[in-house]
Please model this.
Amino acid sequence: MAQLWGGRFTKETDKLVYNFNASISFDKKFYRQDMLGSMAHVKMLAKQGILTEEERDAVLAGIQGILEDVENGKLEITDEYEDIHSFVEAVLIDRIGDPGKKLHTGRSRNDQVALDMKLYTRDELTAIDGLVRELLSVLLRLMKENTETIMPGFTHLQKAQPITLAHHLGAYFEMFKRDRGRLHDIYERMNYCPLGSGALAGTTYPLDREYTAELLEFAGPTLNSMDSVSDRDYLIELLSALSTIMMHLSRFSEEIIIWNTNEYRFVEIDDAYSTGSSIMPQKKNPDIAELVRGKTGRVYGALMSLLTTMKGLPLAYNKDMQEDKELTFDAFDTVKGCLALFTGMLDTMKFNHDVMSESAKKGFTNATDAADYLVNHGVPFRDAHGIIGRLVLYCIEQNKAIEELSLEELKEISPVFEKDVYDAISMDTCVNKRLTLGAPGRAVMEQVISLNEKWMEEHPAL
Ligand code: ARG
Model:
């Protein structure tokens, strides 16, 4: 049991208490950020004359050595220390002696852990943004390739109107684009440095907080020391943004699972992204999509858990806040894994164009366009709606599509129909005459694709 605070105690900590309180088993994850923060702190202390230049150089070299040894596996971060902060300080003192004892001058673990968590989160947020961007690139490629791939669009999971695959994928493009927007906003809002806030009330040492903020690439220092050590808002809003990403991935996964069924056969997931059954030899299951859908619950859980942890906390730091870590780390790892695998699955998936367009032709997806045809020939829309309703009923009885009826059959239902109706209700017309901005018509779809290409250029990875 290695602790930083034995002085005022007369008894050893109970072993169970020690284990319950310790955080090293999970906060060792941000060992690098902890050491980078300490290096910035020590540079600032020397600049302010609080440490000598020799002391600074000894500490910097010492921390650098610890960092390298941890990274190349020579030094193991073991559970005998309470937390990562104690580990670094203890090893430093062990290696360089007295100058190491000055590292913690003008600092508390409260502002230190606030800093470490922010630095780690900033790195993870950046990685996640990069992964969402890769998913967007794959989507954009598929959109470009599929502006003419006709498929049924659904409402209530019932065939509604024909669209294109580009249009359907474009809906997800918009969702993930907004997700990146949220990540960027959060990054900007959280990017203020808490270091120098001390335990809660700042410190009497003449620290230069602007300087440490600049060294660690923050936009500036935070402005209230009590808030700085107890703010976890940025994690809550990030977990909310991650929950939304997962919700989008989960909806998309659900569609892929449906599209991949024998009944639909719109897509075929690549063998590399499918799994088999131990008993049924014919099976090829969409496990990746199912797992992504399933893991969504974990990320929502992290959000609810942290919101609940924070709700009753008085100012300033309370140990409850240590609970922010495991669930947040799990959410980061889960989202990164899901994004990477989902993108790979999408990138290698085969879309069965013929099956999709055949499916669009069945199910009367051109019924609205048939009604519009009558409207264009002077029939009021409500009457046209009724006529086409009867027409659909007739088609169901005959087991035919509208366009498979003869002109005579059509005229029997409404004399307004002429030969040009066949062209007016063809799948190509139904899709490509829909030219309102955001609609599937090829011309506007291409316009939207080029707007989105520009957006990608204007929004490089963070
Ligand atoms: N391990 C703590 C946390 O994760 C940081 C240390 C603050 N500890 C303290 N006793 N003030 O929140």
About this structure: The chain has 19 helices and six strands. The pocket of arginine is lined by residues 23, 27, 83, 109-110, 113, 317, 321-322 (CB under 6 Å). The chain has a mean pLDDT of 96.
